[in-house]
TrEMBL record:
PANTHER family: NADH-UBIQUINONE OXIDOREDUCTASE CHAIN 2. It catalyses: a ubiquinone + NADH + 5 H(+)(in) = a ubiquinol + NAD(+) + 4 H(+)(out). It is found in: Mitochondrion inner membrane. This is NADH-ubiquinone oxidoreductase chain 2. Core subunit of the mitochondrial membrane respiratory chain NADH dehydrogenase (Complex I) which catalyzes electron transfer from NADH through the respiratory chain, using ubiquinone as an electron acceptor. Essential for the catalytic activity and assembly of complex I. Belongs to the complex I subunit 2 family.
Amino acid sequence: MNPQAKLIFTASLLLGTTITISSHHWIMAWAGLEINTLAILPLISKSHHPRAIEAATKYFLVQSAASALVLFSSMTNAWHTGQWDITQMTHPASSLILTSAIAMKLGLVPFHFWYPEVLQGSPLTTGLLLSTIMKLPPITLLYMTTPSLNPTVLTTMAVLSAALGGWMGLNQTQVRKILAFSSISHLGWMAIILIYNPKLTLLNFYLYALMTATVFLTLNTMKVLNLSTLMTAWTKMPSLNAMLMLTLLSLAGLPPLTGFLPKWLIIQELTKQDMVPAPTTISLLSLLGLFFYLRLAYCTAMTLPPHTTNHMKQWHTSKPTSVLIAILTTTSIALLPIASMILTII
């Protein structure tokens, strides 16, 4: 892709995200979502492979339908209340339609079917954008409309997302699909706490984005797309492979790594809200996801000798990329000791 075109698309992504998260009018938020959708499509289909074109088409259709629902819910609310302010979503039907639209944009169950296919057909760098930056505007809209959302609907979606994300990731061999179902499972944790403590949702998203960025950048550096190539990656970059194993365990939520912090806080907050069945259920369902995280970590720790000389070829990366991955990895696996400071901020 032309570097100038890539710069324009990246700037458009930042512009659309900024417009959505800083707007108070529904039309401006909708415009930001549309700019984001149009900017990411060329990045998905830049390889000109039929699978990439299919992924771009699916993404366009789903996001267009979700944006239309966002516009329809805001117009319905404005018709009944006379308010276009995002924080004034008071009409029940509008709130329900908005919840469905945002769930479709994020990939929450039962609107999750498009997400693994789109991520599988995208390059790893574009998959990183789809898993992090593209999720920030919808989560911001949910954050701003929190008082109007239906707790029962969100809790149901959250539990189903945690169950389906863990269950459908069990038999996958493609790393991008595993990360897609991992994202669906993490979205369940974000959605279940949104009504009761929205700041924990943002904390969970920020830490998830940090850990996911580390995993995607590491996999892109090692050119890993499936489990078979992951098993021999240790022969090429042993130190980076060890960091990847720790990051995957952190993404799984194992203590004392960083990924355990948001889950610990969410369980604590839900228990304070007298919702003991909800954290118990979602914690048990997260064990499904823990299985394929451990399988990925085991694949990165494989010590079987390589069978061909091609496996011994060293892969060299630029120094800025290596430094960035090292910084992200260190933060992803070592943030939990400062949990007390984060707790005081929250």
